[in-house]
Amino acid sequence: MEIAATVSAFLTHVRVEKGLSSNTVSAYRRDLVKFDEFARKRKLSLEAVSRDDLVDFLAGLYRQKLESKTVARHLVTLRNFFRFAQIQDLISEDPSVNLESP
Length: 102
What we know:
CATH topology: DNA polymerase, domain 1
Helix content: 55-70%
Structural class: mainly alpha
C-alpha cells in the first residue's frame, strides 16, 4: 500500500475519531508529507519501511539542523501513524516500536 493513502486515512482518523485539534492534524500532515517524500526517494512501500529507515529519516532531520523538539515531534507522529497502520492490518509489524526519542 502507498504511504500517501494511509496518511490520508490516518489524518481523517485523528481528526474525526480522535477529535484532535486542527493545529495537531496540520502538524501530523507536515511531518508525514516529509516522511512520504523520504520514502518515495527510497522507493519504500508502507510494508517495506524498517526501523533503520526511520532512524535514517530522523538523522536526516538532525542534519537539516532541526531542533530536538521538532525531531521528537516527528517521532511521535511516526509512532502514532505506524500504530494506526498496524491496527488497521496494513502492516504486520510496527517499525517504530522501541525507537528511542532524540
